[in-house]
Write a sequence for this structure.
């Protein structure tokens, strides 16, 4: 790889041990994937935040970095933590877990990382521009940034995103390059898609087939960003899709090459079968909405549906801190709480220790959550529309 003089100096340790280690990691990745140079990044987003996911070794690694004086060079945002950082006690998160989680947050804070704790940084203060190079690691956010915004990022791991944040650059390979952004599959959608969970089901189905390749969708209805985030998150979880194009909806679809793509059909039968596969359970003991973290529109919808209702089971709406605060101002939080639900910030059903909190069956409307809950959290899953989940939580 060709490095600039400044990058050589970082590598030689002139900016400290952590910066040198970080540059070594980036150069190694660049060598493996055939990059010729480093490129500056506009922002980074670091996953591997929950104590549940990284445990003591991850905590020690981060505390060590903070002690050695690691500092990020570009705006860097955090993925969800294992609990609501402010209301964890009220939400009954275990105290021992909270203590460890706060140590991790403090290490990130000392490195200058913004403690946004959200998988939707683009809704919570970090919106990249079209074509901007970034280094993000949350797979659903990677998909959204690449596909819906047209920014450019690989699916970074937590350590490589942190290294890029510390150096302010990343190696120029993969999705940073035009030639790697062309589609391989043509997904012909004929099913009628109306709800966010329909898009989650489509994403789950497609991710299983295309794995880490790029799909090009036709036949999608004229939807907004909430549905597209649900679609991308599910594909990133059941497969490893980091970029998709959708005719009339995503910016690079117009000039994507459409010849010689492998065709896949998604009709009513596939939609119905996918719901059945994703939803082996019927009777959730908790319902969690907001994977990826709920937008204001989604929170408002839940509040509308819960107005005047009385839930018999817990219901969480997971979102970012900014959205939670705005929902409080708007009165949505009050409506949801009156019905017996909660708005939970900074975390989600997958990275929170919900199995330790006694839950066994979770109701979700997210293809990503449905993919991860059985393995990561030992949960049975009910998959359905928000309306069906609320009904199930009211019984
Ligand atoms: Fe976000 Fe958690 Fe889903 S990190 S994408 S809400 S699994």
């Amino acid at each position: 790889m060709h490095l600039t003089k400044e990058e050589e100096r970082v590598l030689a340790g002139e900016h400290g041990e952590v910066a040198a280690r970080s540059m070594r990691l980036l150069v190694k990745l660049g060598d493996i994937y055939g990059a010729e140079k480093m490129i500056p990044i506009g922002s980074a987003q670091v996953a591997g935040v929950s104590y549940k996911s990284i445990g003591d070794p991850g905590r020690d690694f981060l505390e060590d970095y903070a002690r050695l004086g690691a500092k990020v060079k570009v705006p860097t945002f955090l993925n969800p933590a294992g609990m609501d950082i402010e209301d964890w006690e009220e939400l009954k998160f275990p105290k021992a877990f909270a203590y460890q989680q706060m140590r991790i947050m403090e290490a990130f804070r000392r490195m200058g990382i913004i403690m946004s704790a959200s998988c939707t940084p683009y809704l919570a203060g970090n919106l990249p521009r079209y074509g901007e190079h970034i280094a993000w690691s949350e797979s659903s956010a990677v998909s959204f940034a690449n596909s819906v915004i047209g920014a450019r990022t690989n699916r970074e791991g937590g350590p490589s995103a942190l290294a890029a944040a510390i150096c302010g650059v990343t190696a120029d390979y993969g999705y940073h390059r035009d030639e790697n952004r062309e589609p391989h599959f043509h997904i012909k959608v004929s099913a009628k898609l109306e709800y966010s969970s329909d898009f989650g089901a489509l994403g789950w189905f497609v991710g299983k087939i295309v794995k880490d390749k790029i799909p090009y969708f036709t036949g999608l209805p004229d939807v907004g960003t909430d549905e597209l985030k649900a679609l991308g998150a599910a594909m990133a979880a059941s497969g490893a899709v980091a970029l998709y194009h959708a005719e009339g909806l995503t910016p690079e679809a117009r000039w994507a090459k459409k010849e010689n793509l492998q065709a896949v059909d998604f009709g009513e039968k596939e939609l119905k079968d996918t719901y059945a596969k994703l939803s082996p359970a019927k009777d959730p003991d908790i319902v969690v909405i907001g994977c990826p973290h709920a937008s204001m529109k989604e929170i408002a919808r839940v509040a509308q549906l819960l107005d005047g209702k009385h839930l018999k089971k817990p219901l969480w709406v997971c979102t970012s801190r900014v959205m939670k605060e705005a929902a409080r101002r708007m009165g949505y939080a009050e409506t949801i709480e009156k019905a017996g639900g909660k708005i939970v910030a900074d975390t989600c059903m997958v990275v929170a220790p919900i199995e330790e909190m006694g839950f066994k069956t979770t109701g979700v409307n997210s293809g990503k959550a449905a993919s991860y809950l059985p393995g990561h959290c030992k949960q049975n899953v009910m998959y359905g529309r928000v309306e069906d989940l609320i009904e199930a939580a009211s019984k």
In short: The mean pLDDT is 97. Residues 17-33 form the longest helix (17 residues). The two ends are 61 Å apart (CA to CA). Residues 79-80, 119, 140, 233, 291-293, 318, 348, 350-351, 368-369, 372 surround FE3-S4 cluster (CB under 6 Å).
